[in-house]
Amino acid sequence: MAKQVTIDAKGVHYTPLNQQIRKAVEDGVDEIVVDNVLGQRFIGNGLRGNATIRVNGVAGGDLAMFMSGPTVIVSGNAEHAPGNTMDSGKVVIHGSAGDAVAHSMRGGKVFVRGDIGYRGGIHMKQYETQRPILVVGGSAQTFLGEYMAGGLLLVLGLDGAMKAREIGSGIHGGEIVIRGDVDEACLAAGAKKLPLTDEDRARIAPVIQEFAADFGLDAEPLVKADYTRIVPASARPFAGKYTWE
Amino acid sequence: MNSNFGSMPLRYRISIDREQCMECGRCVENCPYGVFRWDGERILINSRNCTACHRCLTYCPRDAIMLQEHPCDYRSHPVWTRGVRESIYNQARTGKIILAGMGSVANLPIIFDHLMLDACQVTTPPTDPLREPVELRTYLGKKPSKLEFTQKPNGDVELSTELTPNLMLETPIMLGHMSYGALSLNAHVAMARAAKETGTFMGTGEGGLHPGLYPYQDRMIVQIASGRFGVNVDYLERGAAIELKLGQGAKPGIGGHLPGEKVSADVSKTRMIPQGSDAISPAPHHDIYGIEDLPQLVNSVKEATERKKPIFAKIAAVNNNAENVAAVARSGVDAIAIDGFRGGTGAAPRVFRDHVGIPIEVAIATADRELRNQGLRNEVSLIACGSIRESADVIKAIALGADAVYIGTAALVAMGCRVCGNCYQGLCSWGIATQRPDLVARLDPDVASNQVANLIRAWTLEITELMGAAGINSIESLRGNRDRLRGYMLDEGLLEILDVKSVGA
């Protein structure tokens, strides 16, 4: 039988709160419910294993940073940089999230139902079997996928037009897929637009289906929708800038 | 379209004394740059490929090879120097930013050389380090502002103040951050062994931690730089301390770029990026866009490692150094490394290397003073780096306020580096700054680690002697003790900034 514990975060500083969560994971708890979270930072930081942490409330900055394995589900919003430098596991945010979501993420999944702030998916990178995935249900802000070096960044735009400009500046790996058309003027130097092929669609379909299932959405119309795929114009965006002494 | 410049004057000329030469061919085998080649029975020379790495000279059994720098004169001119002219030719041809290896070549006065150390004479006696202990053991990390004790019923007294983790160094000399990727694995292993043998620590740089270094992990300071290469929770847990690289003295304000050619299979594993892909470290950490974001990153790393390890931050020395240091000190870090404008690098834009930043001597002095003024000096240790060349520099840096130093180039020189500045070519003939297996194999980690350890031991002995001569028996009494320094031919403004008196005063 799955082992569950509930932690009340009301008025608790993040350090003792995170110690309680870490201890629960070490004790082999499968599901940790953290109630009354009000901006406590670093929840799930550096945690290993495969526990599920349910965060009821608003998570503070650097949620699940360096996390390697667990699943974190946030009922509300999350602040700055959830999924920062995350290794593996999954973060599901039912609200919106702040800037630098999935910054330098190298594996696992971050799903945000609402909007994300600036610099979403910045410098995501992949290596061998590790391929990070960031999916945004709403809109993303400017500098989306900046310096991106690997992985998949998917923006579904369920709540209106995409706001991001300067998309993919310095991108040198990975792909950004955005539902609908993206004006060429919104692309930064180093990024180029490609149509989504059937193979691409087959590759992203399971991701869309998983996202839809997590948030109770109908996957079918989203899988069939029109998408714009944005990829690096060159694997070496800065190679032409330098000469040797 | 080619330029009309033709070929530039030679930078170096290699000549062979044909009477001495016995055509053994060791120069041909040893030169990775292609200066020598066989033409039948005769060895031909292409001086244009020479980098002045000296490998051929050192392996010529007959001392038959000679190297001359700048064999061809330009018309001498104090303003339009050779360097200026050649840079213009380069940029007129390419239209690009000039990259260069190693630290600044700007011919500016070195403040360390204008600071004289004190010694005791008749009014106070010197300490004899042979007879009396001179304590160099150094602890890096936060020190409590006060200590509280509780008395037990049996009368014993116990410390009740909770102490934060510190690093214990047997000598205030550490090996600075130079990444695996920029350097070879053999160079890294050699330095790691030397750090272990001499009771000090070594920085990983931003290149992850190769499994070959796991045996020395309790002597490694693992670095998190803006590219986050090789960073995961395993890496953080292995290190003795964790350093956030916020800046580099050789190129303040900009990031770094390891070209895909240097990302070999092994380098790709430790950096956790695909083989052959460029490793781009952005200028800022993109999760630090303001001073309030830095404490968040510091605390995030602390939470991820359960507050068991000291967290360092490294910044480049720039104009508002004192404010930067105070801001970093308030972020919760345990030590701040300040990298002066002469700091080394595998590659940096020439214009940054030679023109951006301030000297380490000034940066340490102003940092120490600002931290004391703000009541923060006990909150952080200060590490001076960027052109620490000899034991005198170490002791002067400590007297100006540092707790310890990082050495980089000096450790490379101890392994054979000739400071040729061609690290970026990836062909280091000494096996230090290369990934080419045949070149890496030239550096024997056993031999090289002994040389690096010897350098640290020798400097430690010299520091002990200098301290003894000054009647100082503990490094704590030297730290920030500017009264033991005097400025020679330094202007009044600089003396005031350094808080050092003039010679004679």
UniProtKB/TrEMBL annotation, chain A:
InterPro entries: Archaeal_gltB (IPR035710), Glu_synth_asu_C (IPR002489), Glu_synth_asu_C_sf (IPR036485), Glu_synth_lsu_3 (IPR012061). Coiled coil: none annotated. SUPFAM superfamilies: Alpha subunit of glutamate synthase, C-terminal domain. Signal peptide: none annotated. Residues 19-184 form the Glutamate synthase alpha subunit C-terminal domain. This is Glutamate synthase alpha subunit C-terminal domain-containing protein.
TrEMBL record, chain B:
InterPro entries: 4Fe4S_Fe-S-bd (IPR017896), 4Fe4S_Fe_S_CS (IPR017900), Aldolase_TIM (IPR013785), GltB (IPR024188), GltB_archl_type (IPR043578), Glu_synthdom (IPR002932). SUPFAM superfamilies: 4Fe-4S ferredoxins, FMN-linked oxidoreductases. The keyword Flavoprotein applies. It comes from the Archaea. Its cofactor is FMN. Pfam families: Fer4_10, Glu_synthase. Residues 12-41, 42-70 form the 4Fe-4S ferredoxin-type domain. This is Archaeal glutamate synthase [NADPH]. It comes from Methanoculleus methanifontis.
